[in-house]
Specification:
Helix 5 packs parallel to helix 7 and helix 8 packs parallel to helix 9. This protein has ten helices and ten strands. The strands form two sheets. Strands 3-2-1-4-5 form a five-stranded mixed β-sheet, sandwiched between helices. The protein has a five-stranded mixed β-sheet with strand order 8-7-6-9-10, sandwiched between helices. It folds into two domains: 133 residues, Nucleotidyltransferase, domain 5 (2-Layer Sandwich); 170 residues, Nucleotidyltransferase, domain 5, CATH 3.30.420. The chain is 44% helix and 18% strand. The chain is α/β, with parallel strands linked by helices. The radius of gyration is 20 Å and the shape is globular.
Length: 336
């Protein structure tokens, strides 16, 4: 079964064709990073306009690369994300399904990130534990099957990717700054700054990164007042210490989640999983816990339509299609 997937939840416009939820025939992505870099972050109105300008030509290219005249169904992200950006992809997908008389499948963006792991690991199937980390989302989830997800833990404020970008901006790095922090962390002393680990009282699996970000910004301001400007060594050490704090926060909560649920399989997905330091720390954790770790290929960690098409296939198999009145939502409710 061929699913045409559409993703436009933030600042990547993407269209893809995926066969049976596992085989990527095409996956076209147009990033808006250069457009938003001068603003230091994503501007929702500009993102929506850029999606509108790009989506038709990307759809044509995706169909062409896949050698596909007509897919069997259309899937598009409906939540969570920037509402204006979501509406561009969602409405384009609904119009396409109406024109071609095809089923329309609304897909949860976070479920899509997890589905990205199915491309490389054909043996992977639920139930399993999942950790999702991106610019807008940080969650620990339990999957009973391909479509039923239970939220175990979430961020109470900033997501990991958001904290990376804000820390990078405080050091003067261009947006998006996560890759620069990853590079600088290799050269710094992770023990040079003692950043407190944040805890959420009575919710041991929930995350909080706002305080960590504020601690780093205050530290940067202190260094600037003392020395006039940040040195390269300062930036290396801040990057290393911040990355280590994130790693400790993530690994401690995943360790608790594994013990609470008893799962022997962990899927880690989302744009932050492109960070080599975090990926290596999770690999070491899973080796210690003697559980299997699955991480999507780096090219599928960020936002892309292939993951939406993959999840769309399983939603279709479960009968989760919708009419043309399907709306977009900035956030979603999960079962606790």
């Amino acid at each position: 079964m061929l699913i045409l997937g559409i993703e436009s939840s933030c600042d990547e416009t993407s269209v893809a064709i995926v066969r049976d939820g596992r085989e990527v025939l095409s996956n076209i992505i147009l990033s808006q990073a250069d457009i938003h870099a001068k603003y230091g972050g994503v501007v929702p109105e500009i993102a929506s306009r850029a999606h509108t300008e790009a989506i038709y030509s990307l759809c044509e290219e995706a169909l062409k690369q896949a050698g596909c005249v007509k897919p069997d169904a259309i899937a598009a992200t409906y939540a969570p994300g920037l509402i204006g950006a979501l509406l561009v992809g969602l409405n384009f997908g609904k119009a396409l399904s109406y024109k071609l008389n095809l089923p329309f499948i609304p897909v949860n963006h976070i479920k899509g990130h997890i589905a990205a792991s199915y491309f490389e690991y054909h043996e992977l199937e639920p139930p399993f534990l999942a950790f999702i980390a991106s610019g807008g989302h940080t969650s620990i989830m339990e999957l009973d099957n391909y479509t039923d997800f239970k939220l175990l833990g979430m961020t109470r404020d900033d997501a990991i990717g958001e904290a990376f970008d804000k820390t990078a901006r405080a050091m003067g790095f261009d947006y998006p700054g996560g890759a620069r922090i990853e590079k600088y962390a290799c050269l710094g002393d992770k023990n040079s700054i003692k950043i407190p680990l944040a805890k959420v009282e009575n919710h041991e699996l929930d995350f909080s990164f706002s305080g960590v970000k504020t601690y780093i910004i205050n530290h940067i301001n202190t260094l600037k007042q003392r020395n006039g400007e940040l040195t390269e060594t300062d930036k290396h050490n801040i990057s290393a210490a911040f990355t280590e704090n994130v790693i400790q926060s993530v690994t401690s909560r995943i360790k608790r989640a594994v013990k609470l649920t008893g799962h022997k399989t962990l899927v880690c997905a989302g744009g932050v999983m492109a960070n080599g330091h975090i990926k290596e720390a999770l690999k070491n954790l899973c080796d210690d816990l003697k559980i299997k770790l699955y991480v999507p290929d780096k090219k599928y960690c960020g936002d892309n339509a292939a993951m939406i098409a993959a999840q769309g296939f399983y939603e279709f198999c479960a009968g989760n299609t919708s009419g043309l009145n399907q709306n977009a939502f900035a956030s979603v409710e999960w079962t606790l």
